[in-house]
């Protein structure tokens, strides 16, 4: 006898209708995959057929603010809630507007990588991070009591706090810190049979550290564990880690992708399949991890993105490639100015040839679909840089307080230039000792360069530095 439930004729009718819809969506997906990066960013998976037949001809994807989906009858509801047909059901589970963003992000991160991808959009970057790592930090029925994971210590302050407090202090999960993420031997020394995954952030915020993405993915896979990378500051316009073997890519959509500064969000994007020794009987766990998280942990924990936030992020996403090109060029000019200033003792920017991570970043960070005239993509290094003001910490505060154009805020990735002092803001909770280990001195000012004319940004920096 089969264990499969016997569905009513009405339910089977909806399943057959759904199969036709999914086949049309599959054909549309195959066509869209042939487009260039900018076209995918502009259109995503929203087709003309969908606009004309389902959305009254709306050129832009509709914003669905309803919290719940209505069903035609009990048969459709049963089919939907048994996951037999496509459904969004309830905005804590999913939402049509959020789907549009997820499809676009999955396509862009998978662009020209040869990988199939899936995406889950969340309420914030931190919730995406939590969902990405928690499924691999569960006690196995047969396995050691103790577990660990290996992470670069040069990461966003909120991520450090999550790993240190929520994982290590509260759950007893050991975090093994790598102090030099470019040093593969240091990574290798930290791994053992109880290691669940490797984690890095590239470029890191605010030190602009970098890692050898392919080498780290290969190292992780040699231990049958996965490599997770936070690629918030690079975005798929400058780097797509799946091309080099990464298993999961994390984004704070609040930052670079949503440059308008009008929305919060996070994204967990996974390759199909991921490599992990963690045992989980759900068929999607390895085959499409982001979908697995959506159907189970995400549904149960509830960090759903607001449809309005997803809509705003989706609209900012359309201009991502040429925006990152402009911001990168502005940043290079600003970094060159700062590197020659007598009151600055160090500038951290991946585009500076003198910077210690430059050659490593040059290998990976390239403007997608660009051409240097010889068939090679052009290196672009993003919008984030940090500079260290000579003298005591008070000097950095004095310069910071003099900005007249550059906004003082803990944010980054905006269309407007924004600066902060990480030691008193984004990395304050990290503590002095950990900040020293992560190379976040109190003299450091983090600057996220915007789309203003670079001459005006430089003039503001110049007048502020003259206060010393």
List the helices and strands and how they pair.
Elements: H1 9-32, H2 37-43, H3 48-54, H4 74-81, H5 96-110, E1 116-122, H6 125-134, E2 148-152, H7 157-171, E3 174-178, H8 184-190, E4 195-201, H9 213-222, E5 226-230, H10 235-238, E6 248-252, E7 266-272, H11 284-287, H12 289-295, H13 297-301, H14 307-317, H15 320-339, E8 344-348, H16 358-364, E9 384-389, H17 393-401, E10 407-408, E11 418-420, H18 432-437, E12 444-448, H19 454-465
Parallel strand pairs: 2-3, 2-4, 4-5, 5-6, 10-11
Antiparallel strand pairs: 1-7, 6-7, 8-9, 9-12, 11-12
Helix pairs in contact: 1-4, 2-5, 5-14, 15-19
Offer a few descriptive terms:
468 residues; alpha/beta; Aspartate Aminotransferase, domain 2; Aspartate Aminotransferase, domain 1; 2 domains; 7-stranded mixed β-sheet; 5-stranded mixed β-sheet; 19 helices; 12 strands
Explained architecture:
With 468 residues, the chain is an alpha/beta fold. The chain has two domains: 90-317, Aspartate Aminotransferase, domain 2; 320-465, Alpha-Beta Complex (Aspartate Aminotransferase, domain 1), CATH 3.90.1150. The chain contains 19 helices and twelve strands. The strands form two sheets. Strands 1-7-6-5-4-2-3 form a seven-stranded mixed β-sheet, with helices on both faces. The protein has a five-stranded mixed β-sheet with strand order 8-9-12-11-10. It is globular. The mean pLDDT is 95.
